[in-house]
Structures are given as C-alpha cells and as structure tokens.
Amino acid sequence: MADDYSLIAVPQTERVPSSVSGTPHIDLVAELGCTEMRPKVWFLSPGDEMSFHRQEVQEEVYYVLAGPARIRIGEEQAVLDVETGTAIRIPPETPRQILNDTEGEHVWLIIGAPPAEDDGIHHHD
C-alpha cells in the first residue's frame, strides 16, 4: 500500500537491555514492523562495549546520533573516533565493536540487511 508507514518517537520509547551484551537499545524492527532490514538504536554509557564480532550475512550501516563515539574495526582492531552525524558501512566479513571508553553517552543507529536474526559471530582475537 502506497500510504503505509510506521512511526515512533524514539526518545519516548523504552530502552531494553540486549540479551547478549546487556547494552540498552530500542529494537526498531519490532517497533516499526520492519521486514527487509534490522534497525536498532544503541545507547552506550561510559564503560559499555559490545562484543568484537562480524556478521554472517548482514551488511551494516552504523550512524552516530550522539557522540563523538568510538568503534573498533578490522583484524588490526583499529579504534576510530566517529563524530556525530557520521555513517560507516561495514560488510559482513569485517569484524567490529562499538565501545565507550569516554565520559559521555554514545548513541548509534545500526541498520543491518538482509534481515537475518542472530547474525552476529563472536570474533576471537
């Protein structure tokens, strides 16, 4: 249907802890009824980090909503400072980890496609 859409107010939506990392997030897949992608908003407090991982099939876009934020990318595990308003595309095979070793909260919008559930593969150093 051409006029079909879903809308939520992200700041008023309840943050739920991830079952894997415990990191608070808003699952936009469930909230918006997404079927072709897996968007989530992640909130990292100082000291929080997600696992260093890659995806099995999902290409992901990482977009910093509030930062500057930090991300570890690649086999060399280079840590990048990422300014608010910056987007990064990461193919499935590239390992990555968002982390917060700063004093402020980091907020990321992460969108993966195709919409594979539980697609992350823990990357061993």
Could you give a short description of this structure?
With 125 residues, the protein is mainly β. It has one helix at 28-32, and strands at 16-17, 24-27, 38-44, 53-55, 59-66, 69-73, 78-82, 87-90, 96-99, 106-113, 120-122. The protein is built from 1 helix and 11 strands.
* DSSP helical segment count: 1
CA-based shape: globular
Major pleated sheet: 6 strands, antiparallel
The strand line-up of the biggest sheet is 1-2-3-10-5-8
Specify Rg, calculated over alpha carbons: 14 Å
Distance between the termini: 47 Å
Structural class designation: mainly beta
Could you please describe the fold and organization of this structure?
The protein is mostly beta strands and 125 residues long. Helices cover 4% and strands 42% of the residues. The chain has one helix and eleven strands. Strands 1-2-3-10-5-8 form a six-stranded antiparallel β-sheet. A hairpin with a 6-residue loop joins strand 1 (16-17) and strand 2. The mean pLDDT is 92.
Salient structural properties:
single chain; 125 residues; mainly beta; six-stranded antiparallel beta sheet; three-stranded antiparallel beta sheet; globular
Strand-helix topology:
Blueprint (H helix, E strand, L loop, with lengths): L15 E2 L6 E4 H5 L5 E7 L8 E3 L3 E8 L2 E5 L4 E5 L4 E4 L5 E4 L6 E8 L6 E3 L3
